[in-house]
Amino acid sequence: MLRIAVTGAAGRMGKTLIEAIQQAEGAELTAAIVEPGSSLVGADAGELAGVGKLGVKLSGSLAEVKDDFDLLIDFTAPEVTLQNLAFCEAAGKKLVVGTTGLDTDQKARLQQAAERIALVFAPNMSVGVNLCFKLLEIAARALGDDGGYDIEVIEAHHRHKVDAPSGTALRMGEVVADALGRDLKTCAVYGREGQTGPRSAKEIGFETIRAGDVVGDHTVLFATEGERIEITHKASSRMTFAKGAVRAALWLADKPQGLFDMQDVLNLK
Ligand SMILES: NC(=O)C1=CN([C@@H]2O[C@H](COP(=O)(O)OP(=O)(O)OC[C@H]3O[C@@H](n4cnc5c(N)ncnc54)[C@H](OP(=O)(O)O)[C@@H]3O)[C@@H](O)[C@H]2O)C=CC1
Ligand SMILES: O=C(O)C1=N[C@H](C(=O)O)C[C@H](O)C1
């Protein structure tokens, strides 16, 4: 039985992960961590997640539960994820990271840690979005770099989301740019305002909507004169991400080290 710990246990994803682990075969929740000093420390993780008592007390630090788990699932914030990464690297624990908004240096730290521990890092753990990555690669190659198609990535999320564009939207842009031989760093345009002039042919535009309780919508639009193609994914429950993260955890169980993503887990490479 894979013993899993969850950090950010009181967060939107943390609570959903507790529920998903409880439903999974071959995995059990053995530790759950909230912010140090939180009034929730000592409460039951299952009761917090609304799935009934699990007998797992919320802890204020990973060090306190060091011997209680084999793999950590972390959906928190970049700085917290990096602290948890250092802990897992030192303690030889496997790690599934869903946190988005990591900068280039932070991503390089994940790559470095993967020399010692096994990691899955993915901006979106849903099967549907990962299938969309594949479809986008096919679409971009078929339409071609000089095919006259303008490419825009449009995403919508709930009002609480703190990073933009979403990690998923950025990955969609990367997948398309890579397939077309473009460099996203130089061709991305984030939002538009004022006298922008006409659109350039090779830019990839990103538009962000933040509103209400939207779980996560992503569309990539390929538009030319006479037609538009849209590849869209809409998440209606966070359980789709949580189930994907638990699937990644179980897949990682026999991997000694290395950095993987959901394309590896789902055999989509
Ligand atoms: N890869 C994927 O499939 C998905 C990724 N995400 C990403 O996951 C991340 C979390 O999203 P979401 O759950 O909505 O965000 P929340 O803000 O609801 O949850 C983040 C949690 O981390 C906690 N936290 C902050 N600091 C610490 C700390 N030092 N120790 C322990 N816990 C801490 C927060 O506590 P507090 O509430 O006290 O601040 C909070 O409970 C985001 O980056 C989001 O983009 C989200 C969905 C899917
Ligand atoms: O913060 C969220 O909620 C989500 N974040 C991820 C992202 O930034 O891509 C994935 C999902 O869309 C939900």
From TrEMBL:
GO cellular component: cytosol
This protein's pathway: Amino-acid biosynthesis; L-lysine biosynthesis via DAP pathway; (S)-tetrahydrodipicolinate from L-aspartate: step 4/4
Dihydrodipicolinate reductase N-terminal domain location: 3-125
Database matches in SUPFAM superfamilies: Glyceraldehyde-3-phosphate dehydrogenase-like, C-terminal domain, NAD(P)-binding Rossmann-fold domains
GO molecular function annotations of the record: 4-hydroxy-tetrahydrodipicolinate reductase; NAD binding; NADP binding; oxidoreductase activity, acting on CH or CH2 groups, NAD or NADP as acceptor
EC number of the protein: 1.17.1.8
Residue sites binding NAD(+) per the record: 8-13, 35, 98-100, 122-125
Residue ranges constituting the Dihydrodipicolinate reductase C-terminal domain according to the UniProt record: 128-266
Active site per UniProt: 157 (proton donor/acceptor), 161 (proton donor)
Residue sites binding (S)-2,3,4,5-tetrahydrodipicolinate per the record: 158, 167-168
Intracellular or extracellular location(s): Cytoplasm
Coiled coil: none
InterPro entries reported for this sequence: DapB_C (IPR022663), DapB_N (IPR000846), DapB_N_CS (IPR022664), DHDPR_bac (IPR023940), NAD(P)-bd_dom_sf (IPR036291)
Keywords: Amino-acid biosynthesis, Cytoplasm, Diaminopimelate biosynthesis, Lysine biosynthesis, NAD, NADP, Oxidoreductase
Family annotation (Pfam families): DapB_C, DapB_N
Enzyme class: oxidoreductase
Catalytic activity: (S)-2,3,4,5-tetrahydrodipicolinate + NAD(+) + H2O = (2S,4S)-4-hydroxy-2,3,4,5-tetrahydrodipicolinate + NADH + H(+); (S)-2,3,4,5-tetrahydrodipicolinate + NADP(+) + H2O = (2S,4S)-4-hydroxy-2,3,4,5-tetrahydrodipicolinate + NADPH + H(+)
GO biological process: diaminopimelate biosynthetic process; lysine biosynthetic process via diaminopimelate
Known function: Catalyzes the conversion of 4-hydroxy-tetrahydrodipicolinate (HTPA) to tetrahydrodipicolinate.
Subunit comment: Homotetramer.
Family named by the database record: Belongs to the DapB family.
Protein name according to UniProt: 4-hydroxy-tetrahydrodipicolinate reductase
